[in-house]
Hints:
- This protein is mainly alpha-helical.
- It is built from 6 helices and no strands.
- Helix 2 packs antiparallel against helix 5 (96-106) and helix 3 packs across helix 6.
Amino acid sequence: xxxxxxxxxxxxxxxxxxxxxxxxxxxxxxxxxxxxxxxxxxxxxxxxxxxxxxxxxxxxxxxxxxxxxxxxxxxxxxxxxxxxxxxxxxxxxxxxxxxxxxxxxxxxxxxxxxxxxxxxxxxxxxxxxxxxxxx
Length: 135
C-alpha cells in the first residue's frame, strides 16, 4: 500500500520537530524506504557506469558536471518523448543518451553535478583519474 506524499511530508515535519512517531507513521516510513532505496541504488550504479564508460578519461568533478549537463538536457528534451518507451529507443541505445534514458527510467529526476559527484565518489574506480589537478 502506497503512502500519499502529503502524509510522508507530515511525517518528515514531525521528525524535524522532534516528535515521536506513531507505529503507523514508522510503518509508512519503512514502506517508503523499502520502495525507494533499491531504485536509488540502481540509479546510482547506472550513473557510475556512465562515468566509467563515457567519461573514464576525465576527473571526477569534470565528469560529474558533464553527466549532469547531459542528463538535464536529455530530461528536458528527448526524454519527454522517450519516457513512454518500454525499452531504450534503438536510435540512442549504446550511447550517452541511451544511458541517460536508463537512469531516468529508474528514477525520473535529473540530478545536480554535486549529487552526481557524491554518487561517483561512493564507488572506487580503478585506474580512474582523480580530482587533483596539476599533479
